[in-house]
Design a protein that fits this description.
alpha/beta, Rossmann fold, Dihydrodipicolinate Reductase, domain 2, 6-stranded parallel β-sheet, 5-stranded mixed β-sheet, 32% helix, elongated, binds nicotinamide-adenine-dinucleotide
Length: 247
Amino acid sequence: MSKVKVIVNGAKGNMGKASVQAIENDGELECVSQCDVGSNLMDEIASKSPDVILDFTHPNVVFSNTKTIIESGKRAVVGTTGLTEVQLKELDELSRANNTGVLVCPNFAIGAVLMMQFAAQASKYLHEVEIIEYHHPYKADAPSGTAIKTVDMIHDVSPNVNEHFGDFKQTELIEGSKGGYYKNVPIHSVRLDSYIASQEVLMGSPGQRLTIRHDSMDRMSFMPGVCLAIKKSVDVTGLVYGLEKIL
Ligand SMILES: NC(=O)c1ccc[n+]([C@@H]2O[C@H](COP(=O)([O-])OP(=O)(O)OC[C@H]3O[C@@H](n4cnc5c(N)ncnc54)[C@H](O)[C@@H]3O)[C@@H](O)[C@H]2O)c1
């Protein structure tokens, strides 16, 4: 069986370097090019003829990178965070029009995917939800893609969480103290050295609280998911959003 040929975009970054290593260690995958700032992605795709391009770059460039990949007719696996709902919809339409596929995974760690699924399941019974996410200070965006995806998954199951907030708005003595709101769920973003990626989902109902927590302490936690996503992406048409969809 021939190997799946992969270009890693953002190959000099933390996730890019770990991914190149993981691809090289996987007998079914081959890294045919390592791109970063200064590379011409379109030229690399034309000359190396990859099956899949893996993107771990920056929230400011991920949308245009992904469009470049799709327009070349190749499959994209996107780990970079920061894509909006509107952009995801556009990528879905564009990839269908180009008869190709794009897999966007805000978190490749299986434990994080389980955390999101458990939180969505629990939200049927515990309707008060807040999220605290912890990352290193060099992370470009806030809140994290994992926090946004967690809220999306909760919202799909329980669109009315946090109704107890009602119209009652507490005074924030310092703006932002109660977090940033997405689909009525407050998200609190901590940026501190020593973290890679952690998240707690706090859920409550009168008299009880459930805390679901996941910690990635090493980037190797993402690599089985990255390799699996690359392999599965060759059969994807349109947008697939979330590793749980291909497990
Ligand atoms: N999906 C996941 O499981 C997961 C896990 C960790 C991090 N992330 C996300 O992945 C992204 C990258 O994280 P990181 O820690 O590796 O960041 P990083 O800053 O260490 O690496 C980013 C790399 O992208 C390169 N880059 C920037 N713009 C580029 C462009 N236009 N073309 C090519 N290369 C470009 C940079 O030079 C750098 O080498 C972030 O959005 C982060 O939040 C996702």
